[in-house]
Design a protein that fits this description.
The chain is mainly alpha-helical. It has a single domain, classed as Serine Threonine Protein Phosphatase 5, Tetratricopeptide repeat. About 65% of the residues lie in helices and about 5% in strands. The longest helix has 23 residues. It comes from Gymnopus androsaceus JB14. One of its GO terms (cellular component) is proteasome regulatory particle, lid subcomplex. It holds the Pfam family CSN8_PSD8_EIF3K.
């Protein structure tokens, strides 16, 4: 498929996608043709230096494909489109102009991981986002799935069928907190107090400070930040994904209890 033909079909795709309502059937047909065109022009999995305008078109096509997949209720298709977009979001992030669809799609991927109960993958993906932890709350597309995941664990206590269950739930919550704390120590050198408060499910700063003291964390109240203690100067490689997987496994057990 020639470049001019590719751009012509891309224009048709945008019109069909932006129609009210979207023409999902036509979008599906055009996307199938356009993916062949992207393969033929070397833009589906780009490598090396390529024309920026062509890369933007390719990225837009794949982003439309990802959103179309959700509208068409085709999760495997979304997985493929999201995987193909990673090259554009990572390798070419410094070359391409920002995309308004990038974080909505990243957020959709996080929700997908939650719905598939892939909690370890959720946290690993969250850590790999190109935004600092203290900026997540300001990004509605990322903060929404984060809030969903946190409420899923914390609200389990309030759903306890009888009062006695809360005794074990509280005990298990303490275990979860310590496992998540270990993940934080492995993943970060420091963390803002407000983020640690949220991640560890504390109700107030006083509870967090008591917990920080128990774990020998250094708290800088003037900067509102926690500095995680390191044992000596030794460099220890900590398997973050394994720690995260273990910590959230407790959360799944908690849900089964209540």
């Amino acid at each position: 498929m020639a470049q001019n033909q590719l751009k012509s079909k891309y224009s048709d795709l945008k019109r069909s996608f932006e129609a009210k309502p979207s023409d999902l059937k036509k979008c599906g047909s055009l996307l199938a043709q356009l993916k062949i065109g992207l393969i033929e022009t070397g833009l589906l999995t780009p490598q090396g230096e390529l024309n920026v305008d062509d890369l933007v078109v390719a990225r837009d096509i794949l982003e439309i494909g990802a959103i179309w997949s959700i509208r068409a209720r085709d999760v495997p298709s979304f997985d493929r489109y999201f995987s193909q977009l990673q090259t554009f979001y990572t390798d070419y992030s410094s070359v391409l102009p920002p995309s308004k669809n990038e974080y909505p799609i990243r957020g959709l991927n996080l929700i997908r991981l939650l719905t598939q109960n892939r909690i370890a993958d959720f946290h690993t993906t969250l850590e790999s986002l190109p935004i600092p932890a203290d900026a997540i709350a300001d990004n509605q597309y990322i903060s929404h799935p984060v809030n969903l995941e946190q409420c899923k664990v914390w609200n389990a206590r309030e759903r306890a069928p009888v009062e006695e269950y809360k005794f074990f739930v509280d005990s298990l919550m303490g275990t979860i907190r310590n496992e998540i704390a270990s993940c934080e120590e492995a993943a970060y050198e420091s963390l803002p107090l407000k983020d640690a408060l949220t991640l560890l499910f504390f109700n107030n700063q006083s509870e967090l400070l008591t917990f920080a003291q128990q774990r020998s964390w250094q708290v800088d109240l003037s900067q509102s930040v926690i500095n995680f203690s390191k044992k000596g100067e030794e460099q220890v490689e900590i398997p973050k994904e394994k720690l995260i997987s273990a910590s959230l496994a407790y959360a799944r057990e908690l849900e089964q209890i209540v």
